[in-house]
Amino acid sequence: MKLIKSTLIFSAYFTVAMAVPSMSAMISGINFDTVYANEVKTKKVPSLRNKVYSQLARAQKLADDGKVDEGLAALDDIQRKASSMNDYEVAMMYNFYGFIHYNQNNLPKAMVAFELVVAQEMIPESLKLSTLFSLAQLAMADGKYQKVGTYLARWDQINTKPKTDAYFVLKSQALYQDKQYQASLESITQAINLAEVKQKIPKENWLVLQRALYYSLNQPQQVANVLQKLVKLFNKPEYWLQLGNMYGELGEETKQLAILESAKQQGFITKKADVRNLAQVYLYNGLAFKAAKTMQLGLDKGLIDNTNKNFAFVAESFMQAKEDKKAITFFTKASKLTLTGEYDQRLAELYLNNEMFEEAADSAREALDKGLKNGDSNTYIALGMAQYNLENFDASILAFEQAEKHKKGKKLASQWLKFVKREQLNAKAMKTVYL
Fold it and tell me: What whole-number distance in Å separates Cα of residue 302 and Cα of residue 67?
């Protein structure tokens, strides 16, 4: 039996860390030939001439000083001479355009500029690789999830080194947003495995993404396994509570109780839904008194709303814990907030069990006056029993006659009716003897 259906609402927010270099990395004085020296050894590329370098440095200085329009205008002047520039110089020019547009949060223009960087043939592979990866990240940030895959595929074609976790995470994020959950799961799992093989702790948002994917793929046991990691590594309240709820989904109520009890001891049960959830788990596991006290404490602290259903839950829990007087208190509160007589009927039954017959009769009459959604045969029976114990035989017989009209309580009411009529005759006979 699954007690609680968790409504795990797994967040779709996963940080995309942009790898685009900062503009400050390209200040005057840096020799661009030196930046890519290792690549030049393996692939012959044109050099960046001093004349072009000084013009790019001037455009950069203007942009760094906050004169963005002037910086762009300086780049436009350089672009008009592009026919006299080599591929590397053109690529670096568009690189500057891309940086400026990116810093202005104009992602579409930044992407156009970086596309023109990788369109140049004679440039270092390291520049092409880093730019393609930056394009994939920009596409992710701009919500163009299918383009992310396209850029990563192009990056893959020229990359010769082992893929890093950043590659797998970015790919997984894009696939997740595109609702390709199985492929996304495979990628994020590779990133997590890479970290764990190196005995490193996977990043929290990687595990959050993996958890969301397992949930989307309807694999609750795997969701629980990931949550166990999150609890162990990050110890956040939401992970404890979600793990408890997942155990409920899996029908492992004993584990659910243990996890939520631990969460409570750590002070993680602070919200209305969590307090009620814990109380329900207590009740399901036969800890009725703890269920009642948990809800009562929530009511006292204002975490739980003063509603008829919440009062009734406390009352029912106290009843199961054989705390009838406390149950009466909360059924009375529930009754005052309810237009129908269901809780008054429960009060009548409780009063009968505790031999409080006047109160039982009053509650039964209150229930009948309000009306009951599920019929009133049980209420008439309770009224008849109360009146019998008060030796109000005529009133008792009348109540049982009313109960006998209902199919649900007909058999029991008929038995009581015969009994009360016989007792009434006996009582009259005894009076005659003493006369």
Answer: 56
Question: How far is the C-alpha of 154 from the C-alpha of 128, rounded, in Å?
Answer: 10
Q: What 3-state class would DSSP assign to 31?
A: coil
Give the number of other CB atoms < 10 A from CB of residue 81. Answer: 13
**Residues present in the chain in total:** 435
Are 303 and 271 spatial neighbours (Cβ–Cβ below 8 Å)?
yes
What type of residue sits at position 390? L
Residue with tokens 């355009």: 97
Residue 363 CA to residue 369 CA, distance in Å, equals 10
3-state secondary structure at position 364: helix
The pair phi, psi for residue 311, each rounded to 5°, is -60, -40
Both tokens assigned to 145: 């999830």
Note the pLDDT tens digit of each residue in 368-421.
999 998 778 899 999 999 999 999 999 999 999 999 998 888 999 999 999 999
DSSP 252-264: -HHHHHHHHHHHH
Tell me the pTM: 0.79
Alpha-carbon span 142 to 148, nearest angstrom? 10
- CA–CA dist 58, 16 (Å, integer): 31
In the three-class reduction of DSSP (H, G, I as helix; E, B as strand; rest coil), residue 305 is classed as coil
The domains of the chain, with CATH numbers, are 8-161 (1.25.40.10), 269-334 (1.25.40), 338-435 (1.25.40.10)
